[in-house]
Design goal:
The structure holds 2 protein chains of 2 kinds. Chain A is of the alpha/beta class. Chain A contains 5 helices and 5 strands; from the N terminus they run H-E-H-E-H-E-H-E-E-H. In chain A, strands 3-2-1-4-5 form a 5-stranded mixed beta sheet, covered by helices on one side. Classes of the chains: A alpha/beta, B mainly alpha. At the A-B interface, helix 1 of A face helix 1 of B.
Amino acid sequence: MAGNRHEDFMPTPLPKNSFILVVALMLGIAAHAATGLKVGDSFPDLAGFELEGKLPESVKGKVLLIDFWASWCGPCRESFPALEDLHRRLSAKGVVVIGVSVDEVRGEMERFLKKNPVTFAILRDAKQRLVARAGVPTMPTSILVDRTGRVRFIHAGYQGKETKLQLERELTTLLEPTP
Amino acid sequence: MKTKLVQSLGLFVIGLLLTGCGHVSPWQRGTLADPTMRADRDLIGLAIHEHVFFSREAATGGRGVGGGGCGCN
């Protein structure tokens, strides 16, 4: 029967310039790749991001643990008791823990804090400007900043006790006087 | 030659624009993380729907549950 040859079932070859489209798509995706803070960068001044809440009075010369969290994020809830414990034990030594909520609705953040009360400073990045600047790879993300204001460690996600121990180890290292 | 170049450039720009459709940053996933976004958010409704579906299709057990397709279990 005419038109039933093997060639008739072969797929039509792609147009020659379709590779340009593929390259453009790949470039576009690459442009979205992380452009946030990296280890060694200086952490931006928190006062410049219109954050809601009271900034801790003295962060200059302190070791900072800045945790980006949200009420809708399960691992963030798990990380809160660990952060609270670190705050209670290390604040006297010079560690300042700051939780930065990225919740768009303040009520949701407040409900979360009612269920998971903490004593460390909580700020809300309502406009999500700081978190965008930090370019966190996942929720939650903890950024450890040394006494000179440089980012020294970035923790993406929270894996329970393991992460807590690692955070404590790193904070202790940052508290040690530099030679 | 010039037309081809313009076509290729147009294709390139369209490709770049298309990639802008799908990126959601980790801190913007509040809506996606809402329980109402889950396909199985209404467990009772899902069970009823599955029962009706399997009975109608005579396919009870089709998803690993024992049964002979009578729709009676």
